[in-house]
Amino acid sequence: VLRIVREKSPRFAAMRTRIERAKADVVGAGVLPNPRFTYGHYQLASPRNTMYEGNVQEEVTLEVPVLIAGQRGARVAAAEKRVEATEAEIEAEFAKLTREVWGLFVKLLAGRARVTILEQAAQDMEYLRSIVTSRKIAGLASSYDVLRIGVEAKSVETQLENARSELTGTAGKLGTLLGLPGWRPEAVGNFAPLGI
Q1: Are the C-beta atoms of 58 and 39 separated by less than 8 Å?
Q2: d(CA 8, CA 179)
Q3: For residues 85 and 155, what is the distance between their CA atoms, to the nearest angstrom?
Q4: What is the rounded distance in angstroms from the CA atom of residue 183 to the CA atom of residue 56?
Q5: pLDDT the model gives residue 166
Q6: Please, are residues 54 and 47 in contact by the beta-carbon 8 Å criterion?
Q7: CA 194 – CA 172 distance, rounded (Å)
Q8: Looking at residue 162, what is its pLDDT?
Q9: How far is CA 150 from CA 22, 96, 123, in A?
Q10: Cα–Cα distance for residue pair 7/196, rounded to 1 Å
Q11: pLDDT tens, position by position, for the chain (196 residues)?
């Protein structure tokens, strides 16, 4: 499951892009700023009320940024620190994602165990219903006993259907969290520590 989280999860893929973006910022921080050249051409309607003579004014501007000593290195160092901070944030978010996936997996294991127990209980209730029905036919049980065991059997069947529905919902949540929305995983294994 943890391998699938790293390989398929859209949340983890989005996390990785943040690291790549932070690494690109390191490269951008080391680039020297470009000089800027601008040219303006103005056609004056009237030369009156201006300090220029003529009807045309042209302007050329060249801006060359001059970095303060150590500024570029400081920008690169700050960008590298942001990469480290982003990586730490991603690890924390991955741990949270892993905990969510593991929680759903454990819930899937528990749900599977619950369904197995309730299936056995439903079989036992059917067996008891047949015994009580046989006893009623033999005159050793009343209609109330048959009705009562029938209600209890239906109660167990309802619990079983609810457990199956919850198991399907948990499997769907796990599949969606892993980036495989159509996948309905089956939990196989025993309860054990995560080991990470």
Answers
A1: yes
A2: 6
A3: 54
A4: 72
A5: 94
A6: yes
A7: 21
A8: 96
A9: 65, 46, 13
A10: 17
A11: 678 887 878 888 888 888 889 999 988 888 888 889 999 887 777 666 666 666 777 889 989 888 788 888 888 899 999 999 999 999 999 889 888 988 888 899 989 989 999 999 999 999 999 999 999 999 888 999 999 999 999 999 999 999 999 999 998 888 888 887 777 777 777 766 656 6
d(CA 113, CA 103): 15
Model confidence, pTM: 0.65
Give CA torsion, residues 172, 176, 177, 178, to 10 deg.
100
Q: Cite the DSSP H helix spans in the chain.
A: 2-8, 10-30, 71-137, 143-177
Query: Is the CA virtual torsion 92, 7, 9, 171 positive or negative?
Result: negative
Reference 99, options 169, 2, 19, 7; nearest CA is 2
Cβ neighbours of residue 93 closer than 8 Å, sequence gap 6 or more? 11, 15
Q: Are 74 and 126 in contact (CB under 8 A)?
A: no
Which residues, 6+ apart, have CB-to-CB distance to 83 below 8 Å? 19, 22, 23, 25, 26
> In this structure, is the dihedral angle defined by the CA atoms of residues 75, 77, 78 and 79, taken in order, positive or negative?
positive
